[in-house]
Amino acid sequence: MSSSELLTGPARPGAPERGLWHHRDFRLLWGGQTVSLLGSRVTELALPLTAIVLLDATPAQLGLLNAAQYLPVLCVTLFAGVLADRVRRRPLLIGANLGRAALLTVVPLLAWSQGLGVWALCAVAFATGVLTAQFDVAYQAYLPTLVSRERLVEGNSKLQGSRSVAETAGQGLGGALIQLLTAPVAILVDCLAYLFAAGTLLRIRAREERPARRAGRTSVRADIAEGLRVTLRSRLLRVIMLHASWYNLLWDVVLVVFPLYGIRVLGLGPAGLGMVVAAGSVGALGGSLAAARLGARLGTGRAMVLGMALASVATLLLPLAPRSDAGLAVLVCGYVLNGCGIAVFNIHSITLRQATVPDELIGRVSATFRFVTWAVIPAGGLLGGLLATVLGPRAALFATAVGLSAGAVVFLFSRTANRP
Length: 420
Hints:
This protein is mainly α. Helix content is 81%, strand content 0%.
């Protein structure tokens, strides 16, 4: 399939004239996802705390637990894309939510029976991560079958807003629940959230057509190769994917170096550091609210370029912050602008794929994007440690910010900027 064919995907169902606030099925999808995201933030905090408090885990064991949570993205994402293009997506979403709820109940049950160990916790984390990888791919592929092409930016903006709220409020909610109930019991809240999300999906009335059976069913390997080939042959998609990978690589350097910089160089303390990081979620919420208006005014391509430029240039504020109260304000400003910009970029990047990629390929194209852009993240962590060791935290942040800004300039002069 040529890139020109790729960018003339089938028309989507008609959109409700009054917007998605009045779209019953979208409200069900949105409400369920919002609740499940809040629950997921609880588990993200509760799993390592269970290992630390209940199992007296070593740093190496905590690293293993973290790897178990994120390794499925690299192991199963491409296969998840194939499955999302072969079967109906809503049953995949419902099954993933029910499966995650069932798996997470194992943790409190084993804790109560004195049978919980680090390896069991890692196994649960890995299995849950597999289902999450499948859910995330199928979720992006399902939205275009539920709402019209004209409403995709609005839909993705609302979903991104929920993610931002969950990032901001979820950790606080998780901490309070863990303090009140203990970490293993708090995980049950996430189980209930997944059950609620499955229930909302079951109530959606829109009928999802079964994917057309292709003549001569191809192998899984051939389907994965087709998704990679279609993505890489499209100049537009290739440029967006490669730049997103560059951003993720260097942003992970920031994630590694910034805590060292904030604590050891600026003397922020844990509370100040947490406030700065939380400001990024607040900025992302603002970006999700502004994304649709920016897209309508500037066009999809220019909105993406503006979002990436804002997110990248904002990181220059981090190494420029002085050791004072004014420095804290500079850091908060940097994180707010970064969160706002990357939310705008992500919303329009996802919307562009959903609106232009044919339905029978969108699962594999989304999986290819996710696989490639996440595969670089571990390398970013290693690079961050190296730069901080060789240059020191402040210089490492400055070099990284320059790299991000240079990438944004390259993106500015790509054809993406001129896309309507």
